[in-house]
Known about the structure:
Layout: H1 4-19, E1 22-27, H2 33-43, E2 47-52, H3 54-63, E3 77-82, H4 86-99, E4 104-110, E5 113-116, H5 117-125, H6 129-170
Antiparallel strand pairs: 1-3, 1-4, 2-3, 4-5
Helix pairs in contact: 1-3, 4-5
Amino acid sequence: xxxxxxxxxxxxxxxxxxxxxxxxxxxxxxxxxxxxxxxxxxxxxxxxxxxxxxxxxxxxxxxxxxxxxxxxxxxxxxxxxxxxxxxxxxxxxxxxxxxxxxxxxxxxxxxxxxxxxxxxxxxxxxxxxxxxxxxxxxxxxxxxxxxxxxxxxxxxxxxxxxxxxxxxxxxxxxxxxxxxxxxx
Length: 184
């Protein structure tokens, strides 16, 4: 029978998995407490970085409907439960791992889909959500304005062409038929 304190820990971790948009599993062997504190600070308000017990976390992940991570629960494990932008958290973890090779990104989950360590690194290479949304908004804004310019150009070009033809006819320009009165 499970002890009440362990059952409470599993319930807490399960809630964290369910409340997170992403979770990244790391191995922290060889990092000092000071380095872990720096890592937590670099994640900011986007993620909660917690050292966890493998067995309890594996049970909690399965209860949260995430069974693809079972193989990653080996060795000292810490999980970054991402509640903010997953790209920013992945960048913070990747950058910290570059400076501190003892931190190893094992894998993770994003919106219920399991990710390998390489996929998390690719996620870190993306631009932030705000930048991508701004680019999308700019592209959407540019297309209608370009279309409007084309649609405005057509009538104005037609008016200029008709006006040029009218002036040419009034001046009796070459290549235009003579008026019927002059043909007599």
